[in-house]
Amino acid sequence: MTEASLKIRPNPLSLRAWVLRLAASRRFQAWAARTPLVRRLARAEGAALFDIVAGFVNAQVLRALVDLRVLQQLQQGPATAVQMGALCAVAPDRMQVLLQAGAGLGLLTRHRDGRFGLALRGASLLGVPGLAEMVQHHSALYADLSDPVAFLRNDDPTALARFWPYVFGAAGAVDPQVTATYSNLMAESQVLVAEDTLRMVDLSGVNRLMDVGGGTGAFLAAVGAAYPKLQMDLFDLPVVLHGAGARLGAAGLSNRVTLHPGSFRDDPLPLGADAISLVRVLYDHADATVANLLAAVHAALPPKGRLIVSEPMSGGTDPDRTTDVYFAIYTLAMQTGRTRSGAEIAALLTDAGFVNISIQKGFRPFVTSVVTGERGGS
Ligand SMILES: C[S@@+](CC[C@H](N)C(=O)[O-])C[C@H]1O[C@@H](n2cnc3c(N)ncnc32)[C@H](O)[C@@H]1O
Question: Which atom of ligand 1 is nearest to the CA of 173?
Fold first, then answer.
């Protein structure tokens, strides 16, 4: 295949074009690497570039540490590669490479006596609910991305879409084993999402909140604890709601949450809530499905009723290091999803008839950001 090339040429007189030409020249890079003042910048740029180049290997080192439960083991105290190798059934010289790599990534520390211990970053990983499970389920995403150009050019079935069967419609999500796997993953990681959402959204004026696509109720459990008087509704696919009773019972919320099994693609949403939340729901679906869902939410709310959308969002005009790479590619691999910017979600809300729309970028955009709106009318 002959290589295609863009016919557009940047303005040769622009300062930016000149800087970019300079940065791409080997001679300039060699000069920058040995020249004081510029040297630091060149090194930082080089390190950032190398980080991108090495990304997959970094992620797989993390995956091995997670699969072998190395971080949990080192929580007990520092250990040598021989000790860890024996525990994990890995030859000591290979375990040494893995532990050294973990230390290079800042997850472990290497002691003077040669033992390895847990670093702050490794300990933090253990403290993030669901992160280990998230790392492990990436095998599906990485399989889909093994040939990224083919992935971009073709629309072949993906392993990730099989992990989230409802993307094919509610009928796809009938295997309780499969839905339990994704529901647990979501419930684990929901803790941080709920924390950040409740930081950005004040529900004190709300009497009844309905969480649509709320999984097994992890978000409502957090809301219920923060707002003891609030009544709640949980709407999700019947097979998913099977797992909700136990969670809500354990949280002491059985008599404050009403379960509504159904599909928002086919069934009307129940009436009665003065606020509706959609947490990590819209980015799973194509624009047409989202438009129908938002119209259904609008119809289910009373005048001045509130809609809260919470999910990781694209940086839009200001591309984001986390959401525009990880989530955008992830939702593309789901085949029906799309990581939208706050402005794009706001436009969809406006089209559905919502007013007083506000966009709040989360303080951890990779956890969540929020768009809220209100049903117009008096
Ligand atoms: C990515 S999960 C998010 C779950 C939860 N809101 C959270 O943030 O942890 C998307 C949820 O939407 C639900 N869902 C997908 N399609 C649905 C449909 N047609 N009707 C009702 N719920 C649906 C799924 O079962 C799943 O629980």
Answer: 25
> What structural domains and CATH numbers belong to the chain?
17-53 (no CATH), 55-127 (1.10.10.10), 140-375 (3.40.50.150)
257 near 217, Cβ under 8 Å? yes
Cβ-Cβ contacts under 8 Å for 168 (sequence gap 6 or more): 161, 336
Kind and range of the H or E element at 235? strand 231-236
Instruction: Report pLDDT for 128.
Output: 87
Ligand 1 atom nearest 190 alpha carbon = 9
pTM attached to this predicted model: 0.89
Q: Is the separation of the CB atoms in 280 and 191 below 8 Å?
A: no
d(CA 272, CA 227): 18
92-104 vs 55-67: helix axis angle to the nearest 10? 120
Q: What is the distance in A from the centroid of ligand 1 to the CA of 281?
A: 6
Contacts 24+ apart (CB under 8 A), 292-298: 292/264, 292/265, 293/212, 293/264, 294/348, 294/349, 294/351, 294/352, 294/354, 295/352, 295/353, 296/264, 296/268, 296/269, 297/212, 297/269, 297/352, 298/352, 298/353, 298/354, 298/375
Look-up of token digits 């520092």: 78
Give the pLDDT score at 173. 56
Mean pLDDT by 10 residues, the chain (378 residues): 67 80 84 84 89 95 97 96 98 98 98 97 91 90 95 92 73 67 81 95 97 95 96 94 89 94 95 98 96 98 98 97 96 93 98 98 96 89
Residue 192's φ and ψ, nearest 5 degrees, are -70, -40
Residue 170: the pLDDT is: 56
User: Residue 27, SS3?
Assistant: helix
Which atom of ligand 1 is least distant from the CA of 214? 6
Amino acid at 263: S
Q: Which residue has 């609910």 as its token pair?
A: 129
CA of 92 to the centre of ligand 1 (A): 44
